[in-house]
Amino acid sequence: MAGIPLDFLLFALVLLGVAVFHHHTLRVAFLGMVTIAAYKILLGDFAGTPGVAGFVQMLHHEWVTLGNLLGLLLGFALLADHFERSHATDMLPRVLPDDWKGGFFLLVMIAVISSFLDNIAAAMIGGAMAHVLYKGRVHVGYLAAIVAASNAGGAGSVVGDTTTTMLWIAGVRPGQVFEAYVGAGVAILFFGIVAARQQQAFQPIMKDNPKNVRLDYGRLAVVAFMLLAAISTNVFLNLRNPELLNEFPLIGIAVWVALLLTVPFRAPTWSLLPGALRGSIFLLSLVMCAAMMPVKALPAASWPTALGLGFVSAVFDNIPLTALALRQGGYDWGFLAYAVGFGGSMIWFGSSAGVALCNMYPEGRSVGAWLRGGWHVAVGYVLGFVALLVLVGWNPEGHAGSKPSAPSVESPAPVQSLPSPKP
Prior knowledge:
By secondary structure, this protein is mainly alpha-helical. The chain has helices spanning 6-20, 25-43, 51-85, 100-116, 119-133, 140-155, 162-169, 174-178, 180-202, 217-240, 250-261, 273-291, 303-312, 318-328, 333-343, 352-360, 367-373, 375-392, and strands spanning 45-46, 49-50. The longest helix has 35 residues, at 51-85. It starts with 5 loop residues before the first helix and ends in a 31-residue tail after the last helix.
């Protein structure tokens, strides 16, 4: 239609439906995914393979990503509850300033946590802390800032985000990704201050610790054990056997093994799983929609392209975007890590961390409210990108001139190419 493949138009309708019918996001995303799959099975193809065989081939490439996302979203939902029930968050008023600066330092803490944890875990822990500190009244703009802080913290660390881990596996050195923190730091300084003031005006931060609060060290131990399982599995396999990460959802499995081992010690709140599962199915449906888009390549590598990918990642899964960029080459990998890692924060479903946090705070599922309240995230993204250009400079393939070997990254069906719709 008008030169645009019908696949893209269908996906655009799905995204529009999610934005408009934010009380029915799961139904819209799932039915949209089924519709796109049926269309491609009957009338299209999957990376050149038509029919059911092509669909099965795509699932074979995608199942590891989907499995990891499902395991992490469900596991970290229970982890965040363990953390909140440990009463560790009740101790925060003792160490945080009792004005807007307390909210700002909380966002910085979330970014630091995300630098060595998965951004989903950082966002969930941050959401649990905010729930206590602000007595359950958290502004949508501050929710956007929590997601942005978790994504910014992971953007410069090869173990902080799935996309940066992909770069590491492909041969990008950790130092080449680390420069993303220049942009992330500037972005956090801007949106963090604005969001903290916004939240303080909406609901002031708790000034005093609740009385007679006792830390549940057992639940804190469970949280630590689950996080250690995720981190150690990720780092060990990346160093020793990275190909296994493309064959099995081992990080998600590690989180659940750790969780189940601790059940006799501290039982999780199993009743949280149905709600977390609905949010997970929503995100997996969008990932599947993106995987079925028939794009052959990204635009030519340049800093404007990298800037644009940040906006695209607000509506597309950033994993296939990263894989396409690796296959194409010619990028400054620090810029790319910042763009695809942070850009998804601009809309709540543009990041797995955003979807996870909105399972805790359903009011964040309104795209209009997210954009109105979280405008500072988009502005912060642009300011951070400009800071990278001015202070670091665009240097394709990294500052040491080494080029990652793209073939080492298994390209899921979306890697056949991801569409680049307008943000």
